[in-house]
Amino acid sequence: MKYLVITNGSYGDLDWYRRRAGQFKKTVCADGGAGRARELGIIPDWIVGDMDSIREHDRRFMEEAGVSFELHPSEKDSTDTQIALELVEREGGRDIVVWGGTGSRLDHNLSNIFSASSFIDRGIDIVFESPDLTVYFVKKQLVVPGLPGDTVSLIALDNRVSGVDLSGFKYPLDKATLEISWQWAVSNIITGESPVVRLDSGILAVFHYKKPVP
Q1: 129 and 172 Cβ atoms separated by less than 8 Å
Q2: Domain 3-131: which topology?
Q3: Distances (CA, A) of 213 to 58, 101, 136, 142
C-alpha cells in the first residue's frame, strides 16, 4: 500500500492532486504541508516537524479533526521532509509518493532528492510526483510511463553509476558509466513505447518531464 508525504513545496494544478488523493493508505504532512492537505480535502494521519510554517488556523483545524502531531525542536539535524519519510519507514511503509518535494528552492530540492536515495538502499521505493514532473529513483530498471516527445534526464546519485542502458530514447546508452561529479545524461527525448532505463550498480534519479522542455 502506498503512503503519501505532503510537503510545503510547489504544486501547480491542485485538481491534478485531488484526482489522485484516494489511492493512499496513510498520509503524513511535513509541517506547512498541512495547509496543502487542507486545500486538497485530505485529512492526514500525522503532521510532523517543528511547526514553524504551519498556519495557526490549519493547525487548529487538524487538531479538531483528530490528527496526530509529532513535534520536533526547531534546532534539529533533520528536515521536516526527512522526518516524514522516517515516520513512514517506522510504520512499515515501502512505497512512498511525495507531493511538493520539488519547487523553487534549489537547496530543498537537492536535500529531498539525496535524502530519498538513502531510503532506496533500504528497499523503500520513493517517487516525487507533480503535474509536470515525476522523479523516480532507480537501482535496477525502470519502464518510464511517458509518451514520445517527453523529456527525460538521468542524474547519478552515487559516485559512479555503471552499466547504464537506455532504449526507446533519441540518445540510447549501452553500458555507460555516469558520475556524480559530471552530469551529462540530461535532456533526452522519448521516441518509442515503453522506454526503459537499466543499470548494473548505483542509484539514478530519473526526471520525467511530461512534455517537451527547452
Answers
A1: no
A2: Rossmann fold (3.40.50)
A3: 36, 20, 18, 21
C-alpha cell at position 67: 490528527
End-to-end CA distance of the chain: 36
* Statement: 138-209 belongs to CATH 3.50.50.60: no
Q: Which three cell numbers stand for residue 201?
A: 550498480
* Residue-range domain boundaries for the chain: 3-131, 138-209
Q: 3-131 and 138-209: same fold?
A: no
Q: What is the pTM of this model?
A: 0.94
Write out the chain's pLDDT in tens, 214 residues. Answer: 899 999 998 899 999 999 999 999 999 999 999 999 999 999 999 999 999 999 999 999 999 999 999 999 888 888 999 999 999 999 999 999 999 998 778 998 999 999 999 999 899 999 999 999 999 999 999 999 999 999 999 999 999 999 999 999 999 999 999 999 999 999 999 999 999 999 999 999 999 999 878 7
Q: The C-alpha cell of 58 is what?
A: 490549519
Q: Which residues contact 46 (CB under 8 A, 6 or more apart)?
A: 26, 27, 28, 29, 67, 68, 69, 70, 84, 87
Alpha carbon distances (Å) from 188 to 24, 60, 109, 130, 185: 31, 46, 21, 20, 7
